[in-house]
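Handout, section B. The chain below has 187 residues.
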Amino acid sequence: MADLSLDIIVVPTYNSKTLGIADASIYPTPNTTTSPTIEITVPGFGIATLPFVQNDFNIFSSNNIGLTEIGDPSLPLPDGLYTMTYSVTPAYQNFVTKTFMRVEQLQEKFDEAFMSLDMMECDRAIKQQAKVELNTIYFFIQGAIAAGNNCAIDTANKLYIQASKQLANFKKNNCGCSGNNYITNFS
């Protein structure tokens, strides 16, 4: 008979409107646990307590989290630091809590900026500068995710804000590239 060991994994859905959470728990045989629930703290909205399907992949949206009414069009879930607590009954120490930094909306903007680059452009210095700028933004996004996953909330938020600012500036100024930074630093 295996001991109970609860675990959940956030699985990318590559969709700003959904949050995927897989159950990676080990349950006793026979499974005598009941009432599986998950509490999801959504940044700026509070806590939603929802039923959770054991041994399955659970998908949540603004509708079932309670940010929008059932039947209304689903809206993008906000970016930011999420906390999830999965629990079962009997409740004595049968829970697991995880945090993660959600960046789906920022990632969509980054993807749009990346895809706007003409990779076949003839001006090598300008193209290389745009790549340097996007790599820097990507580094900040990954740093925000790593910090969020390790409960470094302030660092995660600072890195997210920096990535967002740099991405907005990149898009606003059509990357703002003169090629000079690449020529000065990499040639």
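Note. Strands lie at 8-11, 18-23, 34-42, 46-51, 57-61, 80-89, 95-102. Compare this with the example in section A.
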